[in-house]
Write the structure tokens for this entry.
Amino acid sequence: MSTISWLFYINFAIFAVFLTLFFTELMGAVLLLVRYEQTKARVLAHVVPIWEVTGTFAAFWVVTGDFAYPSMLIPVASIFAGYILVFLILLVARNASISFAEYIIKRAWLDEKKLYQVYAVATILIGAVVVLILSTIVSGAGIDLGTLSFSLGSWLTNPGSLPYLLGVVVLAAGLAPIFYGVTELRRWALPVTALGIVLETVALYAYSRGFITGWFVVPAVFTLLPALLFLHPRTAPIVTNKVVFAIVGFLIIFSQSYLVHPTAFAHATGGPLPVQAVTTTGPMVDAFLVLSTAGLVIVGLLMIFYLYAVNQPAGSVPGRASPPPGGQAEPRGP
Amino acid sequence: MSAGIANFDRFLFAFTIGSHILLVSLSIGLSILISALEFPAARSPDKYYSSLARRLVRPLVISFGVGTGSGIVMAVELVNLFPKFMTLVSNTGVIAIFYVEIFAFFLETIFLVIYVYRGNAFRGRFTRWALTLPIMVGTLLSAVLIVMVNAWMNTPNGFDKATYISTGAVTNVNPWAPFLTTSTGYEVMHVVTTVPLTGLMLIGGYFAYRYLHASGVEERTLFLRGLRVAAFASLAFVVLAIISGALEIDGLYKYQPLKYAAIELDPNPGNNLPLTLFGSLSGQSIVAGFQIPGLQSILTGHANLPGLSQYPSSLWPPLIVHTTFDVMVIGGGLLGLFVLVYVGLWSIGRRPYDRPWMTYLYAVFSFLTLIVMELGWATDEIGRQPWIVYNVLTVNAAANYSDALLVPGLIIVAFYLLLVPFTIYFMVRVFNGRSMEIEPAGAPEGTDVNY
């Protein structure tokens, strides 16, 4: 594998981690909207400690993207200028609503439920913007690389676009009960997930027949596998394990890298775009690899510590101060 | 229309970063204060330190959450608003600084999550305090790394500038050079002292006010503990800020002489130059200003000081930087004096916290610190105009001229105008909202999440 390909795969791996984490939030967001009372405990127990990590992985992906593909910055800024700003507004709305919701004290006009549902709506809309941009990078639908412009109308009229968007929504609905262990929806998980895969297959086929190769079986099987395991009470705990699900999610996304490598924007006007042509060169490649290796070690250790910490049994801190007698309080001065 | 859009890009980024700095200074101040409170909480049987630390975690989580969101907004805005600048950044080692910044984010994010949600799961008296250290280091390191990028914008290195200016090609790249430019040390020292100072003063001012209006002994003691830590830490940062500020001026004299001449409003180079307070330039003369003969040369300790006349006027920054600089220095001086008097009185047992006028003065100086910090940042950024990368790339050449930015950009401005005040209001509310014995909400300890 060439050095240039390493850059692509490192950046794509970080993207896969981000998208996996984001997808777990997206699934939670769907549940918070449709079955708030029944699922909030399970959803929030996962989402509340993880949403900042998701955001950090998003920043990680953006920065490695800037690093690896410097000549794409002007095209991306020109093509998606307005959509990126919309994404940013939604991102701040998401962060603000979930951090407010964590500590809200009920008021007449605002409470925890409303704020978590604002978070859910913002997350779903971010998902829509992300899916829109991803589908254009994969397919080139609506993109003109000559004029560096994007037409929403052209994207919408492409026969692959709406099935692609709908497929993601259906997959989120199908996989959500698995990730969050909602056993009362056990029977729904498999057919809904299968429908999501069918929709994605139709979408990719409509975008380009070349996307449906033998390799497509890999993400399809990895997507179906959790739904199958969830059917049986004995195998369900395997896939409801967050780490196992996250690894499977990573593999599903990473195995779709062939859709954008070695070329992206498959059917854009003026496309497709060879990834190698826009990848950084010279000493910057070495710097990227050195920092990525160091970063992998640092982030890996931090995530291991995080998993260790969340698996610790709760307890009090021995030797910690107990409340003193009230006499210790400092009196007010004259 | 094009120049208008470039100016809109300028305004939007300045507005976003100006709002972001406020949240960042609070996050850094809170992370330092929480760590400073957890240490005595682990050492002594005094419930107030741990109670206060736990209460402060709530606003920290909110400030951090909204702050990281707006941090990502800024990072992406740079690509969107100034794509040619970010293309240069991404072709040089500056992007490596952004890359390392991500690891600082991870450090603070993961340890904050563990401290907030799993802090009690660890055994050991000092574990909670130890968990606060990476949060504090991570927040400070994030600030340091962003300032390193700013230092590179002021004194760029790590590529062949002449070739870039003449051809636009980025050649002879040294990816590690931008980590240490000629101005990096000066800028990092000054920002790393002034930003925490702002956060600590704002929190300290609030504690002083709450102490004075507390309803019982418990509450008074709680706020007094916090005020003591905040005020004494503020004094340490004031001293460091004054030293680093003087060094920063020296750095400008050496490496950005035009910027130096603009902020000092020196029309001509020379020896024995006066210190000019306020005023403006009319031709070659200063009008409506106050001058102290020879003082500028004495303070800087340099024989030959630069003047604006040495440079084409088309390259001068807007001379408003002289006023912003003067207000910053005078405000900073008054602030330093106040903190010194306040802590001095406290040290000799004169209880300044019990005097209402001292408390209100503390509150006034808290806001002054914020103004001083924002003016310092404005002086640095406006002083670099018309360049985005000093003497290499102008803002106009780097800007995005797509009119698709306008509507979402205005929505961002409106959104921030609501978000920032509401965030601060909410931080105050959640700080006060629950009894001090109650742990922060969120994922419960011992959660049954299947990891």
Observations:
- Chain A touches chain B through 96 residues (CB under 8 Å).
- The first helix of chain A runs from residue 3 to 34.
- The first strand of chain A starts at residue 143 and ends at 144.
